[in-house]
Amino acid sequence: MPSRVAVVTGSNKGIGFAIVRALCKEFEGDVYLTARDEERGKKAVEDLEKEGLHPKFHQLDITNQKSIDNLQKYLKDKYGGLDVLVNNASIAYKVKDVAPFAEQAKVSVACNFTGTLDVCKALLPLIKPHGRVVSVASLAGTWALEKMSPERASKFKSPSLTETELVSLLEDFVNAASDGTHTEKGYPNSAYGTSKAGVIVLTGMQARDLKNDPREDILINACCPGYVMTDMSSHQGTKTPDEGAETPVYLALLPPNVGQPQGEMLSDKKIVKWR
Questions:
Q1: 108 three-class SS
Q2: Could you tell me which of 176, 201, 197, 171 has the C-alpha nearest to residue 186?
Q3: Is the bond preceding 55 in cis, omega lying within 30 degrees of 0?
Q4: Helix (H) or strand (E) holding 86
């Protein structure tokens, strides 16, 4: 029998690193720390080994399809599937960043939404019965949904929304940001928030689609880790990375057959209503 296996994307530092640390202590199986940069990823593994932990490493760039495909093949060949997937990799521009909003929108959506979607397309078919999938989103995403015009928000919140339609909405946001018309079209003035709104909505859709899946007891949820002191927040925040990892790890380790939460957005282990 292959060992159980967990993968955490974007985990050479910050919240992802803390999630790997916690899973190494609590998950019964192999835990993979992944990073775009192989050198940084292997250094992170060495740092955890100094703590007496034993994560494994695999290179992964969620914006590179070949990199995603390489990981998928590796997991399929070595483990015959995947038990836990934590979609943590993402980027956020600093408040004072001078990059044009059009660039911020394009890059944020490409990594945070499209990259996460591409990883899910490759790895969700590998998830084994009783598997757990967690996408690290943000309350900035629920805020973005609240700040949309009622007409725009209704499209994101539609219970019959398809993946293709969601992708089109995010593409429309990027195009509108490029034209400077995103607020006129009912989108919020936040590239990061809108990209994470996409992740929250995607999670709900994926859970809905699992209702017709023959695999037993797969749970998929999104969460906000909180305001965490990491490079992304310029080391401002109210939580340490280990504290920020608590809700993602809680969802990754939900016991068999609990049934809930499913397709939800959580913060501090509590469901946040967004629909």
A1: helix
A2: 176
A3: no
A4: strand 82-87
pLDDT at position 226, please?
A: 78
Decide: residue 63, CB within 10 A, 0-12 exposed, 13-18 middle, 19+ buried. middle
Active-site residue numbers? 192
Which parts of the chain fold into alpha helices (H)?
14-26, 38-49, 65-79, 101-108, 116-123, 139-147, 150-157, 163-179, 191-209, 241-244, 246-252
* DSSP assignment of 194-232: HHHHHHHHHHHHHHHHGGG-SSSS-EEEEEE--SB-SGG
Q: What are phi and psi of 159, to 5 degrees?
A: -65, -15
SS3 at position 237: coil
Residue burial 157-168, b: 16+ Cβ < 10 Å; e: rest: eeeebeeeebbe
Per-residue model confidence (pLDDT) at position 275: 86
Angle, in degrees to the nearest 10, between helices 139-147 and 150-157: 130
Residues 175-233 have pLDDT tens digits of 999 999 999 999 999 999 999 999 999 999 999 999 999 999 999 999 999 766 655 55
Give me the residues of the chain with pLDDT under 70, please. 1-2, 227-237
